[in-house]
From TrEMBL:
Function: Reversible hydration of carbon dioxide.
Cofactor(s) essential for the protein: Zn(2+)
Record PROSITE patterns: PROK_CO2_ANHYDRASE_1, PROK_CO2_ANHYDRASE_2
Keywords annotated in UniProt: Lyase, Metal-binding, Zinc
Organism: Camellia sinensis var. sinensis
Entry's family note: Belongs to the beta-class carbonic anhydrase family.
Single annotated GO MF: zinc ion binding
Cofactor binding mode and count: Binds 1 zinc ion per subunit.
GO biological process, one term: carbon utilization
A Pfam family hit: Pro_CA
Protein name as catalogued: Carbonic anhydrase
SUPFAM superfamilies: beta-carbonic anhydrase, cab
Amino acid sequence: MADQLSNEADREDGANEFKEETALRRIDVGSPVEIIRRGFYHFKTTEFDKFPEYFEELAKGQKPQFLVFACSDSRVCPSRVLDFKPGQAFMARNIANLVPAFNKVRYSGVGAIIEYAVTALGVEVILVIGHRRCGGIKELMDLPADGATSNDFIHDWIKIGLPAKAKVEAELPDPKDEEKYARCEREAVNLSLVNLLTYPYVQDRVAKGTLKLMGGHYDFVNGKFDLWGIDLDIKPLLHI
Ligand SMILES: [Zn+2]
């Protein structure tokens, strides 16, 4: 395969073949190796080889502006949906795009991402993106009240979102209300934004105004994206 990439004739054939395959008419379910070969070929010929200065600069180091939390759902890749370029967004993806509260005993994978992105990379924005028809959020809303779980990790993970679920259930007490899933997709983002503030380096930079926290929601049914911020202005309440 490597030889093919260096062959000019094949390169042209590949480019033509590629135009066909990236038209998003259908999901390619062919050979995994072929999908990867074609995908990297596309990236290399349309981006890496085409903009050498860009990638030479990136090779020296990264200085991403964003840390993005998004769901692992295969339909919501932020680099695709928001067109983030290489080097632009440090990325964390997990089931239901949840950020747990600061905890040195659990969830070190998430904690390490936040710590590194904020203290070493100095990201300016942490964006948490929820999405329409999130399976993780539906699972959270449908969790049995007795806390019984039937899997190794999934329910334990999505229980991070329980405060969001409780808020939605208080607002929409009818268990048959389908609106509760959509509502919880956004409430879980807000919960994650609040949880981000339990990380001391996040709290410190937000207070200084060098870091912003934003929530987003991608609706892939209607092709819409909402974005909101949290306002932590300190207002004087009393002066005596
Ligand atoms: Zn999801």
